[in-house]
Design goal:
By secondary structure, the protein is an alpha+beta fold. The chain has nine helices and 22 strands. It folds into three domains: 169 residues, Rossmann fold; 80 residues, Beta Barrel (Elongation Factor Tu (Ef-tu), domain 3); 116 residues, Beta Barrel (Elongation Factor Tu (Ef-tu), domain 3).
């Protein structure tokens, strides 16, 4: 299955996923787009691009001895991917314990229970409501067991739960606003008898013939055609992964991270913004202070950024204990913050970027900061500068 999804020669030769693979399948009730994101730590930026478009995460874990432990231990990719998925808005998670048919596992209930018991506390600390938003199940990807149809009792006597497709079919996706202003972050573009932009509609709808804006370069475009899962359509709504053929702009003028938006209510374009950050783990001997530089990942944007002001540090433990708000002392601006701190800060980028406040459009207002191949912070946009100004009131 991996060989089918990994389409370029480098991936097939190395046996690892590099790019985000795309495929479609349908069950009786739902049409799905699979975004096969890489698991290797060198390709986490590509994983972020895939996860930022997803409604549901399917976290594949190996049951084979040693393989689960490698991914789960400190610095392992299972940990980083869970944290990133949560940050990127993937609120529903299906944890599939794969390779249950491996000779070292042999559909062992003890091994399955061990993996689940270790994952549950970590998922909770990552912000998942395990009872409500996470489901576990055993599978064999190689043999196709427990994917499309339920496990045969002869194969695994102790599992009586659903198969993967049943679980995916039953997950309730949060409703999006089809009547709101259009927001479609562009993840890729190509030329095909015109300019085609690819992306997922986060809010609003696109109709053939619509006049829209490509931001931040403020280009007026007209929608000539819409493709959804390879099929031509005249309209597409929120949650759909689409290809939109546009007139009025050249392929060379569109970049990943640009946003297709409505004329009446275009997306905000800024050089700086205020954010609430949670520091996860800084590199050794590094201080998080004014002047700190990192790479910002927000929807399809990848931009170098700099912390230009630390505004306020939140002490979550003290906040819970504090009963009388009148006794609050005015907070001093911190000079620096440490691991696990929550801080409001101002972030600056070199190029104009399209973002929104998290409270208005969560998918366009949550982000990660990475440096030297490691995710060091997760955050959300809390304030934008007023229009036509690069500073805050």
């Amino acid at each position: 299955m991996a060989y089918i999804m990994d389409t370029n020669e480098e991936e097939r030769t190395k046996g690892i996923t590099v790019e985000v693979g795309r495929a479609h399948f349908e069950t009786e009730n739902t049409r799905f787009t699979i975004l096969d994101a890489p698991g290797h730590k060198n390709y986490v930026p590509n994983m972020i691009s895939g996860a930022s478009q997803a409604d549901v995460g399917v976290l594949v874990i190996s049951a084979r001895k040693g393989e689960f432990e490698t991914g789960y231990e400190k610095g392992g990719q299972t940990r980083e991917h869970v944290q990133l998925a949560k940050t990127l808005g993937v609120s529903k998670l299906v944890v599939v314990v794969n390779k249950m048919d491996d000779p070292t596992v042999g559909w062992s209930k003890e091994r399955y229970d061990e993996i689940e018991s270790k994952m549950v506390p970590f998922l909770k600390t990552s912000g998942y409501n395990v009872k409500k938003d996470v489901q576990f199940l055993p599978i064999s990807g190689l043999m196709g067991f427990n994917i499309k149809s339920r496990l045969d009792k002869k194969v695994c006597g102790w599992w009586s739960g659903s198969c993967l497709f049943e679980i995916l079919d039953s997950i309730e996706i949060p409703l999006r606003d089809s009547e709101g202003p259009l927001r479609m972050p562009i993840i890729d573009k190509y030329k095909d008898m015109g300019t085609v932009a690819m992306g997922k509609i986060e809010c609003g709808s696109i109709h053939e013939g619509d006049n829209l804006l490509v931001m931040p370069n403020n280009a007026s475009v007209k929608v000539l055609g819409i493709q959804c899962d390879e099929n031509r359509t005249t309209r597409a709504g929120p949650g759909e992964n689409v290809r939109v053929k546009l007139s009025g702009t050249e392929e060379d003028d569109i970049f990943a991270g640009f946003v297709l938006s409505s004329f009446a209510n275009p997306i905000s374009c800024v050089y700086e913004f205020n954010a609430q950050l949670q520091i996860l783990e800084l590199l050794d001997n590094v201080i998080f202070t004014v002047g700190y530089k990192a790479v910002l990942h927000i929807h399809a944007i990848v931009e170098e950024c700099e912390i230009v002001e630390l505004i306020e540090e939140s002490d979550l433990k003290k906040k819970k204990k504090e009963l009388d708000p009148k006794k609050k002392k005015p907070k001093k601006k911190p000079l620096f913050v440490k691991n696990n701190a929550v801080v409001v800060c101002r972030i600056q980028v070199n190029n104009l970027i399209c973002i929104e406040k998290f409270s208005d459009f969560p998918q366009l207002g949550r982000f990660t900061l990475r440096t030297e191949g490691k995710t060091i912070a997760i955050g959300k946009v809390v304030a934008l500068p007023p229009p036509k100004s690069s500073s805050f009131a």
